[in-house]
Amino acid sequence: MDNLEKQLICPICLETFTKPVVILPCQHNLCRKCANDIFQASNPYLPTRGGSVTSGGRFRCPSCRHEVVLDRHGVYGLQRNLLVENIIDMFKQESTSSPRPAAPERTEEWAMCQEHENEKINIYCVTHSVPTCSMCKVFGAHKDCEVAPLKSIYQTQKTELTDGIAMMVGNNDRIQGIISQLEETCRTIEENGRRQKSQLCEKFDHLYAVLEEKKRDLSSKLAAKQEEKLNYIHGLTKKYKEHLELSSKAVETGIQTMEEPEMAVFLQTAKDLLKKIDEASSTSHLDKVERGYEAMDHYTINFSREGRALRNIDFISDDEDEYEEVDGGEAEGGAGVETQAGVGGGTATPAQLPSLPPQLSQPQSAAKLAAST
């Protein structure tokens, strides 16, 4: 019977279950009044009616800490455990009809007064807040004190202790909820940090791609201009070589004619030879390279302004607006590039960069001289 009685003890009021007894989803039992006390302590701001919460909420089982979620009926929506109620009725009937042998032992365990031998402690000194006996009140140290029946003080303090336990259970539930929220906040911060780092890397990769594209474009322009100049010089060199070859032949022919002993033969060839020598000695029909044509210094880029802008990249403050990304070539006079990154669910954008493409001076075309005869 003692083991059975232990199974019928409510974990809140520490007494035998008081009907109605409700069964929780975790299969533990509570007095409905105790369950309502825990529910109100865990949900202090929910509307009540007649001392009972009348809307949905949640609390934790005091035995296993399982979270119990209730609908709009509150604890009155929990199922009654009729089996436990019937066992309680049978236990009480059995206890009444056949007193247990252990009852005399309980009388021996009654607290006795230390000042008066064989006197039971049966009253409570309200003045000193200690239990005492009737002899202490009549003849002893508490004769001038205010006293009260021991049972009434017992019931009062037991009720206060029960309410305190229920309040602590509710506080523990709230603290557990705060801990859960903090853990969820940590996970959210970690996830937001990973997402913003990924976005930051994507923006910088895009900036690298823009710079690489512009590098290829400018390198292509520089290579094209270099090829143009080299082709022109190579062509001009070929023309001068051809003219030199004609001049060399004219000189060789002239030397051979000078060796002719016959005056008639000499005069027959001298006129045409003089004309060829005159043409060969003239280079007016050939282009001449302008001074500085070989220079390529005008294809120089100054990155000082862009470098300062890159070094000033930072996250935006809360009062700044988020910039829209502008692709290269869309902005007038160059492409503005910006990056943005956020932390903890916010967005951060560095200062907008100035135009990346440098201003290149156009090369001067080589002046070609008109051919003259």
UniProtKB/TrEMBL annotation:
**Which segments constitute the COS domain?**
258-316
The residue ranges flagged as biased composition, category Acidic residues, are 321-330
Compartments, record wording: Cytoplasm; Nucleus
What does the record list as coiled-coil region(s)? 172-228
The alphabetical list of record keywords is:
Coiled coil, Cytoplasm, Differentiation, Metal-binding, Microtubule, Muscle protein, Nucleus, Transferase, Zinc, Zinc-finger
Q: Cite the RING-type domain residue spans from the record.
A: 10-65
Q: Where is the composition biased (Low complexity)?
A: 348-367
| GO (cellular component) term, any one | nucleus
Cited InterPro entries: COS_domain, E3_ligase_FN3/SPRY, Trim54_Bbox2_Zfn, Znf-RING_euk, Znf_B-box, Znf_RING, Znf_RING/FYVE/PHD, Znf_RING_CS
Kindly name one Pfam family recorded for this protein: zf-B_box
Q: Where is the composition biased (Gly residues)?
A: 331-347
Q: What is its EC number?
A: 2.3.2.27
Every B box-type domain range:
108-150
For the region Disordered, what residue ranges are annotated? 321-373
Catalytically driven reaction(s):
S-ubiquitinyl-[E2 ubiquitin-conjugating enzyme]-L-cysteine + [acceptor protein]-L-lysine = [E2 ubiquitin-conjugating enzyme]-L-cysteine + N(6)-ubiquitinyl-[acceptor protein]-L-lysine
* One function term, GO molecular function aspect: ubiquitin protein ligase activity
Q: Does the keyword Cell membrane apply?
A: no
Gene Ontology biological-process entries:
cell differentiation; regulation of microtubule cytoskeleton organization
What does it do? May bind and stabilize microtubules during myotubes formation.
> Which PANTHER family does this chain map to?
E3 UBIQUITIN-PROTEIN LIGASE TRIM36-RELATED, TRIPARTITE MOTIF CONTAINING 55
Q: What is this protein called?
A: Tripartite motif-containing protein 54
